[in-house]
C-alpha cells in the first residue's frame, strides 16, 4: 500500500541521516519512530478492521507526525542542514497527509 511504501522510504532516508545527528535523545526518538512504530503499526492495521483499524492507523499517524516534528527540530537546531534533510521531510509530510486522508475515509 502507499502508506507502507512511504513508511519504508522514510526508514531508508532517515537511516542515511542518523549518523549525522549529534543529539542522542533526538536520534533515539527518531530511530524508534522510524525503525519500528510507523511501519509496524501500518502492518498491524492491515490485519484489523472497522474502528480497530482506524485506531491503529491513528497511532501510526501520530508516530509519523512525531518523526516530522523531530526532523523539523533537527533542522532548526542545526543538527542537519536543509539540503540533507529535505527528502526525509518531504516523505514524512507526504506520509502524514496520506494517513490523515485514509483515516478520514475510513471513519
Give a quick precis of the structure:
With 107 residues, the protein is mostly helical. 85% of the residues lie in helices and 0% in strands.
Write the layout of secondary structure elements.
Layout: H1 2-17, H2 24-46, H3 50-76, H4 82-106
* Largest pleated sheet: none
- Alpha-carbon distance between the two ends: 19 Å
Structural class label: mainly alpha
Shape by Cα distribution: elongated
Following the backbone from N to C, one meets helices and strands in this order, namely HHHH
How many strands appear in the DSSP assignment?
Answer: 0
Number of helices: 4
Specify Rg, calculated over alpha carbons: 14 Å
Low-confidence stretches: none
Oligomer: single chain
Name the helicity range: over 70%
Mean pLDDT: 84
Which range does the strand content fall in?
A: under 5%
Description:
This protein is mostly helical. Helix content is 85%, strand content 0%. It contains 4 helices and no strands. It is elongated, with a radius of gyration of 14 Å. The two termini are 19 Å apart.
Features:
107 residues; mainly alpha
Amino acid at each position: 500500500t502507499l502508506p507502507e511504501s512511504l513508511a519504508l522510504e522514510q526508514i531508508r532516508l532517515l537511516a542515511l541521516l542518523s549518523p549525522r545527528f549529534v543529539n542522542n535523545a533526538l536520534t533515539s526518538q527518531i530511530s524508534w519512530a522510524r525503525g519500528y512504530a510507523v511501519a509496524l503499526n501500518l502492518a498491524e492495521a492491515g490485519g484489523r478492521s472497522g474502528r480497530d483499524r482506524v485506531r491503529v492507523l491513528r497511532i501510526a499517524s501520530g508516530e509519523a507526525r512525531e518523526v516530522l516534528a523531530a526532523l523539523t527540530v533537527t533542522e532548526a537546531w542545526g543538527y542537519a542542514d536543509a539540503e540533507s534533510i529535505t527528502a526525509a521531510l518531504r516523505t514524512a509530510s507526504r506520509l502524514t497527509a496520506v494517513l490523515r486522508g485514509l483515516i478520514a475515509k475510513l471513519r
